[in-house]
Amino acid sequence: MKSEILKDCLNVSHNARSMLLILVVLAAVIIPTTSGIEGYIFICAFLCSRMIVTTFVFDDTSKWTRYAMTTPISKRDLVAGKFVVLVIFCTVGSLFGMAVGAIVGAVLKAVSFDPVGIGELLLLTLTAWVISLIFGSISIPLVFKFGAEKGRALLLVSFLIPAAIGFVLYRLLVLLGVEITDQLIFVLLCCSPVIAFLWCCAMYQISCRIFARQEL
């Protein structure tokens, strides 16, 4: 599985310069606006999470998957490698967005570096990481099912499904009379890494079942 992870990271590194340029341009465009640092961190995390689909495109082009199945690596290991790579991409995107957002925000005097300001920035980064990980994990079983090209066209689904689930849960809480307070939101944010982990486990199992049925 280590070779799978290194292979994907090296392949995507060829696009690092263009992605870096895009993120720098977006920093100049987004941070000074009303979206501010918050919007920029989320966009960085989302764009980097989308790169997981690019790894599938490289695999299809080089026929990597068929070759990998002739090695000791199992199908479950190959799927697990994709999820590990997704975690890496989301982490890099979130931290990059936080770092650039903090630097530009400091120049524009839009962010404070007192304990409260730093805590808000870290919490925002964690939120962006969790959401991008949830969205990105849905794209993996989609690509395994429909292929890289069709899966790319269905990326909108990876946004709609979690959004729909979140809306339903919100409406359910409202119907049950649960008040959405700042304390409740803070607790949910603290629990969000566990939620993301369980979600990824579910997507991993679905991906394994889909991939297991395919003949290469």
Q: Please tell me the total number of domains.
A: 1
Number of helices: 8
Radius of gyration: 19 Å
- Return the average pLDDT rounded to an integer: 82
Low-confidence stretches: none
Classification by helices and strands? mainly alpha
Largest sheet: none
Q: Quote the distance from N terminus to C terminus.
A: 19 Å
**Proportion in helices:** over 70%
Order of helices and strands: HHHHHHHH
What is the percentage of strand-forming residues? under 5%
What is the number of beta strands?
0
Gross morphology: globular
Structural description of this entry:
The structure is a single chain. The chain has 216 residues and is mainly α. It has one domain. It has helices at residues 2-13, 16-30, 36-62, 64-68, 75-107, 115-153, 155-175, 182-212. α5 (75-107) packs antiparallel against α8, α6 packs across α7 (155-175) and α6 runs parallel beside α8 (182-212).
Summarize the helices and strands and which ones pair or pack.
Layout lengths: L1 H12 L2 H15 L5 H27 L1 H5 L6 H33 L7 H39 L1 H21 L6 H31 L4
Helix pairs in contact: 1-3, 1-5, 2-3, 2-5, 3-5, 3-6, 5-6, 5-8, 6-7, 6-8
Summarize the structure in short:
This protein has 216 residues and is mainly α.
Using brief descriptors, characterize the structure shown:
216 residues, single chain, 8 helices, globular, 0% strand
